[in-house]
Amino acid sequence: MRRDLTTGLLAVIVLTIFLGVVYPLAVTGVAQVVFPGKSDGSLLRVDGRAVGSSLIGQEFKGQAYFHSRPSATEYSGNVTFFGNVGPNSVEGRELVQENLASYLARERPYDHALTRDRIPVDAVTQSASGVDPHISEANARIQAHRVAAVRRLSLATVEDLISGHTDGRFLGLLGEPGVNVLELNIALDQEAPVR
Questions:
Q1: Which of 6, 139, 160, 167 is 20 to 30 A distant from 69 in Cα terms?
Q2: What global pTM score does this model have?
Q3: How far is the C-alpha of 183 from the C-alpha of 193, rounded, in Å?
Q4: How many angstroms separate the CA atoms of 32 and 81, rounded?
């Protein structure tokens, strides 16, 4: 029995050192060399200052910026979850109706032809993680009217920025194209800074 306990204790110590220290340090070291930007969280920098991650959505305030999808976590990267309500949930319906009313109130003054039927689903629903950094092209093109008017840019200029920050389908087949909101807002600030 003493021999089994010694062997077991030795195995725990060796495996803890190897799997808890050596292996994570090795993987982190390789990641830092091979993928330096991604291993540090895909941080985007403006004038040397980190402004966010291209992988995590965030809230943007004000009429001059594109807005991300709604989030149950208030865009907290360390507490990601989906507001788990089903299609028959009264709470879910009320939340979508509230988001729809907010979206229409924000966007309709700049696009008078906007109706409930034209609003894409990602504009009023949460993503599975609650921190998706992308919105659909349709959502971005609706918001472009507001952003162009507030920043005093032509709609064509803003739409060109949207096209330049739209990611295609994964492997050309999977998913839908999406617009990275943080990258787009950074490009907008470079094109026409908010005063």
A1: 160
A2: 0.76
A3: 14
A4: 28
Q: Are 131 and 56 in contact (CB under 8 A)?
A: yes
Contacts of 54 (CB under 8 A, 6+ apart): 42, 43, 44, 133, 180, 182, 183
Measured from the Cβ of residue 139, the count of other Cβ atoms closer than 10 Å reads: 25
Burial of 60-85, coded b for 16+ CB within 10 Å and e otherwise, reads beebbbbbbbbbbbebebeebeeeeb
Question: Nearest to residue 72, comparing CAs of 90, 60, 88, 84?
Answer: 84
Same domain for 102 and 160, yes or no, is yes
CA dist 95 and 89 (Å) reads 10
Cα–Cα dist 131/162, whole Å = 20
The three-state secondary structure class of 52 is: strand
Tens-digit pLDDT profile for residues 49-62: 777 777 777 888 88
Three-state secondary structure call for residue 74: coil
What domain range is 22 assigned to? Answer: 1-40
Task: Classify 153 as helix, strand or coil.
Answer: coil
* Stretch 79-87: mean pLDDT: 68
